[in-house]
Amino acid sequence: MTSVGASIATNQHRCSGRGAQQAYVLCWESLNADLLRLIADRVLSSDLLHYVWFRAVCKQWRANTLSPRGCGVVDPRFHPRQWMMFPEGNGLHPGHPALGGYICFLNIYTGIFIRVHLPCFEDHSVLDCPDGLLLLQRKKDAVICLLHPFTGDVAEFPPLASLCLYMSKFGIFLNGPYDLRLRMVHAAVSVHVGGSITIMVALSHAERMAYVSTGDKHWTHTSWMMTGMMTALPFRGSLYTVRIWKNKPSHIMRVNPPDSSSSSSWPSTPPQMIATCPANQMAKAYLVECNSELLLVGYTDRHSQLVVIRLADLMLGIPATPLTSIGDHALFIGTWSMAVNSRNLPFVQGNSITVLNPTNSGRLWQYDLGRGTWSPLCDGNFVSASGPIPRPYSLVHHIVSCCQRLYWISGDTWTRHHDSEPRWHIVASAHERVCTVCTDQLKAIHLSKIYV
Question: Which PANTHER family does the entry link to (predicted)?
Fold first, then answer.
């Protein structure tokens, strides 16, 4: 269903006679409007880019389906959830002059690259990417913006400056709204009936949360503290954290966004404990979204193996059976965890887990969930004083960098060391560099041409 537009375009070229081709096209153009919208909804549920291709088939289809422009932020159906801003590496941070205002995005399920012109990074810095949207901070006044990178839709919110004064009451003194500790945020976005938007952020270093909604003049902060926010995970508008206790079951906590009836009590309402994870089953658990559900990933008691269980099983109160297969998915676990589809991404092994905590002689290892074995993910020593890991960096290095936000936004590829040589000697886009290694396995499209 998701390739309807592409297959139709291909079949049109295969029609032998001019009259037959015209009749075929007219037949599809006259498709019933209700049926057309039903198909469009199914296509959109798969991926935003597939929906764009669908609308590009003909003028009739385009006229009878909703355009993403103008509602890309306020309509959750158009959020680019499967897309990740791609870290260029070589010091080419977003907004670097060598990029000419262009930013690459990677679909972590289909392996498609797109290149979008985003000159906003000249006066904005990026904090996070909830639901594929870019959470930006404007440099001149610290105003927070939520940007849809493909449609250009923007929603503005008050600056984070009010957080600085609030934190000082608890002995956390920040150096203004650009303090590094304010950049380490985990954000969740929810859209309410009527188009009102709420952003929740987990302040990792302060162990508190804050929120702001459309029309608010300042951020509202919690009066409680909680550990585990360094790895907080957004899911369906809420924020989930793992509260770890030594030799005790870990608590899975959830903080929901406020609604009209709970906004006044939200700052003092403690997070909800939704499940516990027995200490003898899993230690140091992490949350990750995979295939539209939440998984818990952690070590066994001796740290020799990894265990994966479904959060839904724990919430039902039934004994959680460890998974032995996650199909073609590969999990990358770090301060920001993510799942990718290995089928469409070269050099990524399916049914595997990579934990961004290099141990065992300083190498980065991946865990085969089916076999229960460890193997080195790539060459090089991440902690050795001898220098950086050897080049060329593969696609895996860039995906790993997405899980470490300070590298993701700085243009550096994640490693414990950096090159001593100048970083600006390679100015090609990430797509061009990666495709020199795996041209036949990656697809790319210039999205801005489709939206015109």
Answer: DUF295 DOMAIN-CONTAINING PROTEIN, F-BOX DOMAIN CONTAINING PROTEIN-LIKE-RELATED
Q: Is residue 442 part of a domain?
A: no
Domain contains 14 = yes
SS (H, E, C) 90-130: CCCCCCCHHHCCEEEEEECCCCEEEEEECHHHHCEEEEECH
CB neighbour class for 255 (10 Å; exposed up to 12, middle 13-18, buried from 19): buried
Q: Is residue 9 assigned to a domain? A: yes
CB neighbours of 249 closer than 8 A, spacing ≥ 6? 276, 277, 278, 279
pTM of the model: 0.84
- Please report whether residue 218 resides in a domain: no
d(CA 240, CA 234): 6
Of 12, 45, 63, the last residue of a domain is 63
Range of the domain at 355: 278-419
Beta carbons of 309 and 332 less than 8 angstroms apart: no
Give per-residue burial for 261-278: e unless 16+ CB within 10 Å, then b: eeeeebbeeebeeebbbe
Task: Band the pLDDT of 90: cuts 50, 70, 90.
Answer: confident
Q: Is the pLDDT of residue 386 over 50?
A: yes
Measured CA to CA, the distance from residue 196 to residue 215 in angstroms comes to 8
Which burial class, exposed, middle or buried, applies to 192 when counting CB atoms under 10 A from its CB (0-12, 13-18, 19+)? Answer: middle
Say if residues 401 and 407 touch (Cβ distance below 8 Å): yes
Question: Shortest CA distance to 257 belongs to which of 316, 182, 177, 196?
Answer: 196
End-to-end, the C-alpha distance of the chain in Å comes to 24
- Half-sphere exposure in the Cβ direction for 366 (13 Å, CA): 21
Q: What is the number of domains present in the chain? A: 2
pLDDT in tens, 190-204: 999 888 999 999 988
Q: What is the rounded distance in angstroms from the CA atom of residue 123 to the CA atom of residue 136?
A: 10
Give the DSSP H/E element, type plus range, for residue 388: none
Alpha carbons 26 and 408: distance in angstroms, whole number: 47
